[in-house]
Amino acid sequence: MRLVLQEFLSLDGVYQGPGSPDEDTSDGFTQGGWFVPHMDEAFERQAGTWLGTADAFLFGRRTYVNFARDWPKMTEHPFANTLNGLPKYVASHSLVKAEWDPTTILSGDIPAQVAELKRQPGRELQIHGSARLAQSLLAAGLIDELRLVIAPVVVGKGRRLFPDGGAPAGLRLLSNETTPGGLAIHVYESTGLPEYGTYGADA
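Now predict its structure.
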């Protein structure tokens, strides 16, 4: 399976609390819900298309707990059968029981276990949110594709997908589009380490 990251970001790179004011108030974050005003039918269609290519999901603990709380109750939502029914994996050193079936808890050497999951047959192992997990897997060279949905808003504070001191990564742009609600959808392929050059250097 290919490992694919899907992440909602503000223009200044924040991923924290996109869905509601009380989604994630850790570290005193008060700007939650910044993504919602820009959602539209075009984005919902794209999200549904992406979801249709998943054969399993991978979460960090925080995102898993939020999804496990909400999605089993959202039985009428068009995404519910896929999210509730497909295999799920959660990377956590603290969870001892996972209520959202079918779920497998991963602990110990997470990158090694994810690499083993990628060797299984299938299309995509998708990471939704779970940015801290994504940062470690990107540093390990395990993420094959990044789908970044960027909202036209500057949040000003909050946790960022690409923080100072993060691992360098080379990417190749596969596609980009915008929605009527102003979302910019950028799809990148991982290419390993970045390339560098000097502007104006002789060939």
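Helices lie at 41-51, 61-70, 80-85, 110-118, 131-139.
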